[in-house]
Amino acid sequence: MKDKYTAVWLSHSSIKDYLKCPQAYYLNNIYRKPETGHKIMLMQPPLALGQVVHEVIEEMSKLPAAERLRESPLKIYERLWKKVSGKMGGFRSLDEETKYQKRGQEMVQRLIDNPGPLLKKIIKIREELPYFWLSEEENLILCGKIDWLEYLPQTDSVRILDFKTGKFDEDPDSLQLPIYNLLVTNCQKRSVTGASYWYLDRDDEPRLVKLPDLDSSYKRVMEIAQKIALARKLEHFKCRQKDGCRACLPLERIVAGQAEYVAVGEYKKDIYILN
Asked: For the chain, how many structural domains are there in total?
């Protein structure tokens, strides 16, 4: 009998962690600090920036199309930025924070100046964290949040729109689209007929990207999901590099007590920064 409380939950971020480094996956997704019983989180400026911009977009998505720009998105941004100001965002100085805050403002301004996609009808998945059973037999659940689902009335279908706040283009071999395709297909009733990435630091409109077919998406995701499930069963999470890698070494410093504790964040994660 399926039991979501004993299942292995997988998401794009956790799968990406494992592909980078199994030890980083363990420290980000399983390890808990003995003193608090909480998971750990290394906060860094790019993460803080992406978090706030995506929260602005999330607030807009909750409103009817005609009301999405009624309150200035820049005002929403300034209000939300307070949550990551200073050490909460991993900033080491006021100058560094100002630099990142300005980058985020420019991204939000780009949305205001090019609101076309934001003013179209969208579909909202009801669950706060959409998920479905990737495999009941193997006790695997796939979960994740989708930024934006544009409704296409001509075909009664949806198109995935993912907002990007980083400096680099998404790797064509990334599992993000296969995962999102599976999630959207299984978490709402309409078919998925397209996908786009919107690189907010440099593009005035979304770029269409090829949507992978469902069968190949399932096979790719299931293959790595089984590897993660086996690693969890064997408790085997070893870095592939002899002396550690860029993904796991910063997290190892937290475990070793070499990072500064900041606060308890969302989802009861202990937030740390590195000096």
From this structure: 1
